[in-house]
User: What shape does this take?
Amino acid sequence: MNSQEIVDLNNQYLCSTYARFPVAFVRGEGCRLWDAEGKSYLDFFASLAVMNLGQCHPAVVKAVQEQVATLTHISNLHYIIPQARLAELLCTHSFADKVFFCNSGAEANEASIKLARKYGVDKREGRYEILSTLGSFHGRTMATIAATGQEKVRQGFGPVLEGFRYVPFGDLAAMEEALSDKTVAILVEPIQGEGGVVVPPDGYLRGLRELCDRNGLLLIFDEVQVGIGRTGKLFAHEHAGVTPDIMPLAKALGGGVPIGAMLTTAEVAESLSLGTHGSTFGGNAIACAAGIAVVETLLNEGVLDNCAEMGAYFLSRLQALKEKFSFITDVRGKGLILGAELDREGGKIADTCLTEGVMINCAAGKVLRFIPPLIITKDEIDEGLDILEKVLAQQ
Ligand SMILES: *Cc1c(COP(=O)(O)O)cnc(C)c1O
Assistant: This one.
């Protein structure tokens, strides 16, 4: 099939929920993708911060192939090795003692929200309210659109689940002011991803931790986008030197195989007791085998260091572009989640870049977002940013 035939077939049979670029990919390797016509593209998007090890990483391919040929799926009424091993790996390398597996970021947030409410009932006299931040993104299910601090995701889906309020991101005083005697948890992304790579001021996450400690609240860090090495550490909150009580994960955890996870402490996990939550596919054997390969590769193959080093280089090149083009008003980010904010819409620039052979993304209308695989090389960064520079020069 050629690209046009693939696009037409999709448009005929799929719900039109996505604004798609008219490109159909058929193959990938590392930071490189090929479309149906054989044209190659450099990937600065990693399929939305999912392919942190790039396409078809040998460790992930091997783990998935071996698992699918050995034991494909077992229900959660019985035990399997990969689920326990991945949970052990995640706990060993984080604040957490316990893991609940699901299949997506929204589900990991759902589990976090359910746990916070149950904890409120069990240990906080029935408190239920969760404070989240304006511009946040936590998913597309009914509870997670209620948690998301963007009105547009709720439009047309009322009545919206109660018990959420939104506070400006990065503003500690506003968060403190917003607390009520019903508040049980604070939910934030350590860096807002969909909101346009918004990095909070230094001390914000630590301040939230202290606020939660003083008031007996749960702190939930949504690391669905910025976790799994994206910022140069396994989890983004490690930069701040504080830990949450609950952490939803997904996106990059399965190396492209769908998986979500909610991590928490032993004390908080007591509330997610027998029969209170579940998922048919949660902790599926193939997904967990892939997850083990991803986390071990990140930790043992120098990928985190590469992310930090290449991130610093990428950011320095974006800073040079900002000097050159006055319509770039800010560049920011950490590791390999970087943004260049423009004084204008950025969608057309991203479109043109794709036509010219480099895939970038535009978030929140005006922010060019760069989230390449963490295995990217300096040569690949130069190649992609040279294309971007040419596109920017035509603005
Ligand atoms: C993508 C994302 C989600 C939702 O994940 P899905 O797998 O699409 O349900 C939740 N939170 C954050 C921070 C995300 O970036």
Q: What stands out?
A: The radius of gyration is 21 Å.
